Amino acid sequence: MIAVRFLLTALLMSCSPASQAFQVNKVVSAGMLYTVAEVDLTRDRLELHWLNPTTAQPYASFAQVQGRLNKLGRDMLFATNSGIYAPGLRPLGLHVEGGRTLVPVNNARSGGNFALLPNGVFWVRGRQAGVTETQAYRRLAPQPTFATQSGPLLLAGGQVHPAFNRGSPSFKVRSGVGVCSDGRVRFAVSAGPVNFYAFAVFFRDRLKCPDALYLDGSISAYATPENNTQLADFAGIWTVSR
Fold first, then answer.
1. Cβ(222)–Cβ(188) under 8 Å?
2. Whole-angstrom distance, CA of residue 216 vs CA of residue 101
3. Hey, what long-range contacts does 199-206 have (CB within 8 A, 24 or more apart)?
4. What is the pLDDT of residue 20?
5. Does any domain span residue 7?
6. 3-class DSSP state for residue 120?
7. How many CB atoms neighbour CB 19 within 10 A?
8. Domain containing residue 130
9. Residue range 8-32, pLDDT digits in tens
10. What pLDDT, on the 0 to 100 scale, is given for residue 111?
11. Can you give the pTM of this predicted structure?
12. Where is the Phosphodiester glycosidase domain (predicted)?
């Protein structure tokens, strides 16, 4: 009887709303520690922020965005940097916020990681999300609520970016976002330096995301209610809140 009661309790707990709460997990893969935020768009509020409507200036920090959300009566559960940005804390590529295109698509074909083609766009519209190669995104015209352009693409249809090399000596802290086979969005920030190939394979093989986009490198960071790793200012900032 005790065993049956214990089993029933465990089943109830596994089906409770608390078990479906948003989570940020630590994941070790190939000797590297990653912080992974798993976003279920059917329950989680995922948004992109750049300019504070009160000051018309970039938020720059997780703390400033958190302050804004608090004023709106909401709690910030997670934050991380968006895509690569230009001087003056201006997104280097497409930035869509609240359905408004604040920065247009950037078609640059040279200049750093952003232009290591193919690059792409991470976009969110309601309960849908995608990581789409930039020119394909323009043809698709998904009219997202939120979107950021960055580069390079880590994965497209499960295929690793053709310029990535397993033996590349370019090791940096990296952050990225993937849209995964279960329909969920996963953000990942490495705790230490990894090369592009290892980072792409982590999204594909461990997180089961066939499509993923590199967001930024050495300055990448995240924040939770318990921790804030930010050391540099950001342009766009993604948040999950309630």
1. no
2. 21
3. 199/154, 199/174, 200/154, 200/155, 200/160, 200/161, 200/164, 201/30, 201/160, 202/29, 202/30, 202/32, 202/34, 203/154, 203/155, 203/176, 203/178, 204/155, 204/158, 204/160, 205/29, 206/27, 206/29
4. 63
5. no
6. strand
7. 10
8. 22-241
9. 333 333 333 434 679 999 999 999 9
10. 84
11. 0.91
12. 78-221
